[in-house]
Write a structure and sequence with these properties.
43 strands; mainly beta; 22-stranded antiparallel beta barrel
Amino acid sequence: MSRRKHLKTSGSLSRPAAALLPLGALAAGFGLASAALAQTAPVEPAKTENALPVVRAKASTERAGKEDYQATETRIGKGKQELRDIPQSVTVVTERLIDDRNLDTLKDALKNTAGISFLAAEGGEEDIRLRGFSLQATGDIFLDGMRDPAFYERDTFNYERMEVLRGSASMLFGRGSTGGAVNQVSKEPVLINKGEVASTIGSGDYFRLTADLNLKTGEDAALRVNAMVTDANNYGNKINKQGVAAAYRMGVGTADEFLASFYFLDNDNGINYGLPWVRKSPTDSTPVMLPIDARNYYGAASDYNASTVTLATLGHVHRFSSDRELRTTLRVGNYERDQRASAIRFASPVFASTLTPATVLNRSGGGVHAKIMDMETAYLQSDYSGKHRFFDLNHSIQAGLDLAQEKFNNYGIAPNSPTMLKPSTTIGTPNDGASVDESRRITRLVSDFDAKALGLYAQDLIQLSSQWKLLAGLRWDRFDGRYSQPELRSAAGAVTQVAAVRSRVDSLWSKRAGVIYQPSATQSYHFSYGTSFNTSGDTYRFDALGSNTPPEGSRNIELGAKLDLFEGRLSTRLALFHSEKYNERNRDELTVNATNYVLSGARRAAGFELDLAGRITPQWEVFGSYAYIPDAKVTKGSAVNGVSLQGEAVGSRPGLTPRHSGTIWTTYKLNEHWRVGGGLNARSSDTPQLSTTIIAPKFITADLMAEYVQGNLSLKFNATNITDKLYADVLYRGHYVPGKPRNYQLTLAHKF
């Protein structure tokens, strides 16, 4: 059911089912091909004759996920690989860490990795930054290795783990950012009977119920269902969401394995657009945070951030042998979003030194702040991974193709919609219950975007000797986007938007290369180079200049190490990196009546990262992630005024790139029943994008945990931000969103 069920619409968009026929036909072709392979290619044992000795990590993979903070394998690099064989930084947040810290959203999980910051965009959505570069939510977030493009509040109830690949990743995923990519890994059915039900209550009238049920249905088949319900008043900024994920696997571990899964998530949450910065005093114009409790919510009771996500996935794995497989996946999805927000602004000029409980805040903030959109997607992906021996050398080959079809519709408030100004409030009366009838607003189609993409790639990891490996990869992408907007008129009949159709086709190559040195089973050192690109249509729109502008290009250079300590129980990652967008879009101010942007801008970020995860002793677990970015700079801008397209001056440090950021978390098992833990989260001072005067103060917050286990029952207590630190979490030049206040949660779980 549409999230816009309460709205009167004055425009609709045809979405013919025939648009999916090309992908459907191709999927059928892959199905036939897979069936043929299954009949003609029986599973054979791996051939190891004359193979060079392979250095492998000693750390056990059986503890990963639910039982450990340490992960040793991943599929983020296309095909199952040991992390030590990827010459690029990867941070893994396992299910155990997610459970221990009660991380129930993607955003919370990302905060447990370093180098992450958040932009509070004008539309209310949060733009994630990694190493200072935007992780476009429309392009750099993935679900099981497939693009998960829409804006919505992602929940962790079906996470096996979350993986952050740092640096350029276009060779793996196609169009994408300089900073990296985030991959959400779903729970899969396994060949045992098990289950867990957990219930959490907490501050802000928080209640959450989750269930994870796995049933072995046959010798090689299993069904897994995960479900979630969350409800909270949250001091006025409500949370109300439900989700279910069901997956069925057949032929597990055999020559032909099949997967069918369904995912549904419904959000009907509130939205905190943020609070305005305020000048310190009449004699000091420095913008500062409002000295207001983070629990205070000033949005209207009728504000909401509603979204619905429905995904259906079919997968097939054909194993030619124990170390060669072809994995094919088809996914279709539907995303709907309807967001209404209050932009809080002062009714008259004020200063921090003169604020009183009677200071008036306006909620309208210059107009109606709404984001209303829907999206239909279809993705087909086929990846081969296998180990071979050519020219007396061992090769780990990965190759494949992916196809994408995306249809995006954007809606706005129609001019004949009723005028409804949200009531103002005061600093002393948060969460006053004031509202407007959002169902009376009338919407209309503002624009739509059709995108088709094709990617082909091949990568080879060559083992030159028992200690040296060489990686080389190449990918070709074709992105075809068509953007259209109807003519729009005001209530008085004046044209406010000219009808336009814009399109662009881009074809690009992406490269990846690396060398790996592994002198022992516990050491792996790498040097790598990779490229990425961003098209003008990455955010599903073309402006008049962008439709004539080639993609931006980026590159990432990294020198790093992955080391195992304490007999393989603890893994560490270290990296020196240099990330650069070297031909950023900028205005061509030297050309009269320019018809395109020029790729004359550049920016960079360089620094050091450190991760550690695992056990120091069998009882003592630890997870940490730290990033230091001393060198971040806009290096090129407009030839006329020396600023970037975003208005940042050449030589300045880009916003949302803190010098220091990180987290540390540790637990200790006292005895058979008790486990205690605690951690810190920290960020140095930071600035929003396009601002040199606003400085968000540095902060450190502390969290605690205690867990009691008796048989299959566990009772866990979490306290986050125990000092009730007030800090700016999500930044924008006009406003900020404060971080979560002190919060208590109690979780009762039963395993069976």
